Amino acid sequence: ELSLAQRVGRIKPSPTLAVTAKAAELKAQGKDVYSLSAGEPDFDTPQHIKDAAIDAIKRGVTKYTAVGGTPALKKAIITKMQRDNALDYKPNQIVAGTGGKQVCYNLCQALLNATDEVLIPAPFWVSYPDMVLLADATPVFMYTTDATRFKITPEQLERAITPRTRMLWLNSPSNPSGMAYSKAELTALGEVLRKHPQIVIATDDMYEKILWTAEPYSNIINACPDLYDRTVIIHAVSKTYSMTGWRLGWAAGPARLITAMADIQSQQTSNPNSIAQVAAEAALLGDQGCVTEMVTAFKRRHDQLVADLNTIPGVKCLPVDGTFYAFPNVDGLMTKLGARDDLELSEILLQKALVAVVPGSAFGAPGHIRLSFATSDKVLQGSVERIKALLA
Ligand code: PLP
Prior knowledge:
By secondary structure, the chain is α/β, with parallel strands linked by helices. The protein folds into two domains: 142 residues, Aspartate Aminotransferase, domain 1 (Alpha-Beta Complex), CATH 3.90.1150.10; 223 residues, Aspartate Aminotransferase, domain 2 (3-Layer(aba) Sandwich), CATH 3.40.640. The chain is 43% helix and 13% strand. β3, α6 and β4 form a beta-alpha-beta unit. α4 runs parallel beside α11, α5 packs across α10 and α13 packs across α14. The protein is globular, with a radius of gyration of 21 Å. The mean pLDDT is 96. Bound molecules: pyridoxal-5'-phosphate. Its cofactor is pyridoxal 5'-phosphate. GO terms for molecular function: pyridoxal phosphate binding; transaminase activity.
C-alpha cells in the first residue's frame, strides 16, 4: 500500500462536510432530506457585491495581485476595523487569504513549534485542533457546558496554562455554541493572559455581525487594549455577507507574524482571488443594510426554532447570542430513541427522520447536536415535527 506522510494520520476530514455529503447522498436517492447541517447563510450574495465583481472582470482585474491582498483591499479592511471595532492597523499588519480558514491555517504554520500547546475552548470550530496538529503542536481542550453558556472561565484558563502554552483560540460568537463573550468576561480572561506574555491570542471574529445581544460586540482587544501586540484577529466576508464561496478572509495582528503568514502563503497559494478581493472591498465599504436584513431573519428564525426545540421531549436548548446555530443538549432524546451517543442519534435522525444535523462530538461537546437555522421556516418547522413524530 502507498505510504503517506505521518501528518495525514493525525487528522480527519471535516466532520461537518461529512454530514453534508451523507445528506446529499440520501437526497440523490430521491429522499426528501431536511438539512440543518450547513455552515453558511442561505441568502444570495447581495447584488451590489456581485456587480462590483462583474465590473472587476470587465476591467481586467484578473491577474496576480500582491500576495497578502491589494493596497485597496487592505485599506477597506483597515477602514472596517476603525469604523466597527475602533481598532487601528497599518497595511503591514494585514494579510488577506483564501477564506478565514486559510488565514487560521497559516497562523498555526507561522507561529507553532512541535513542543507548543494551543488552548482550545470546547465546543470548538472543527478545524482548530487539526490545524494545530498539522503544525506539529498539541491541542489542549478546555471543556465547557451549558452551565457557563459554553464559555470558559478565568479559573479554567489559568489551570490550563503551562509554560508550553503558545496560543489561545477565542471564537465569539461561537460556532457551534452561538454564544458570545461579554466585554466583562473578556476583561476577566485578559487578566489571566496578562500574566503569561508568551501566549498569542487568536480571536476568530467571523460571526461578529451575526449577533443580537443588548451589549455591542467586543473582542479581547476592545476589552484589554494592552493585549493588542499579541492578538491576531481573524475575519472574513464569508458569513457576514453570505460570500462563503468567494473565499476571502484576513488576519490583523503584529507585523512580524503577519509578514511570516504572508511569506508562507507566497509559497502556497499566492494572492487570494483578485475578483473576490474587489467584491470584498465593495462588501466592507458599501451599504451595510444587507447585513441588517440577514441578521433580522436569523434572529426571527432563532426565536422560533429555540422555542420549538424546547417542546421536543428530551431536548434542552438555550437561546443563543448570535450566529445561525442552535446547540441543544440531547441527552434525554438519546435515551428515548435508544441512541448510545450523539453520533448514533444524528445517524438515527438522518436515516429515520430525514433530518441532517451535526453531532456535538465533532465539536468536542458530546450529548449535543448542532442545528443550523440558515434555512427556510418550512424546513425548520418540518424538522421539529419529524423528530417529534419519531418519538410518537
Ligand atoms: N472560523 C469559524 C468559526 C467558522 O465557522 C468558519 C466557517 O465555517 C471559518 C472560520 C472559515 O471561514 P471561511 O469560509 O472564510 O474560510
